[in-house]
């Protein structure tokens, strides 16, 4: 099976307007060129527009979130007596439940939308509006699938957030592919071993916590463990890998070559790692050198580590880190 075919099987949910569908209130779209140009060759997108799904027309009156008796409602902006809360909530529950059976590996939502926004959506009170809300559909999505990587279209313009999201998507897909339909202790242990360095870079405390969880796998039924491990794994990776943590991982990797490299090569590797630490070089520089040495001096354990190549190089996501 080709790498391209494997990639195309990575299902990622997406707000239809971000994919370019003309479903917005004004009959327009909110196409993301990063999504359509960079991600489309690698992901198989599952588009959803909760407003159209709930029966609202295109075009349609604008809607907003409002506080109504301690609850959040979705109403039309110009006529708040037209309340669409029940229809949108009903559609959201039904759709999200169906998507939960499809093994989605991520979701890209439309920012600021009263149905799809992930954070800082305006919620209108009697006298003011506060950016404290979550879109009705996305709230249901994140509640039903707390392990799922969810990101807003606008935030994907940030190179660090973009790289983090794609890393999580590929990790979750790898998890599903690795355990298959019949999860076993051995499959999970092997998967976890491949992500040790990745976890060290994203969240050292979670790395140790997940290690203890895997060590105690016999205390769970296998199905219960899969659910618990998946949630803790994806929550850990939601923490962005810091320069400090990446440097610690690079120094850890350096230790594997201490008996293989000569004095000059060791000094060069230390220098490249330190230049990354101080911001003079991108993460790609020390990783490229380490992979070069790994090709010359193979190590079975390092060869399995997804930290060295968490996603296809064609995505070029580590150039700006």
Describe this structure in words.
The strands form 2 sheets. A 4-stranded parallel beta sheet has the order 2-1-5-8. A 4-stranded mixed beta sheet has the order 4-3-6-7, with no helix packed on it. The N terminus is likely disordered. 47% of the residues lie in helices and 12% in strands. The protein is built from 14 helices and 8 strands. The two termini are 31 Å apart. The protein is an alpha/beta fold. Strand 6 and strand 7 form a beta hairpin.
Indicate the overall shape: elongated
Would you tell me the structural class of the helices and strands? alpha/beta
Helix fraction by DSSP (H/I, runs of at least 4): 40-55%
Would you identify the regions where 5 or more consecutive residues have pLDDT less than 50?
1-6
Tell me the strand percentage band. 5-15%
- Biggest sheet layout: 4 strands, parallel
Rg (C-alpha, Å): 22 Å
Helix and strand arrangement:
Blueprint: H1 3-8, E1 11-15, H2 33-39, E2 44-48, H3 50-53, E3 63-68, E4 71-76, H4 85-99, E5 106-109, E6 121-124, E7 129-133, H5 136-144, E8 150-152, H6 159-179, H7 185-194, H8 196-202, H9 204-215, H10 222-237, H11 243-254, H12 263-277, H13 284-296, H14 300-304
Question: Which structural traits does this protein have?
Answer:
8 strands; four-stranded parallel sheet; 12% strand; 47% helix; disordered N terminus; 321 residues; four-stranded mixed sheet; alpha/beta
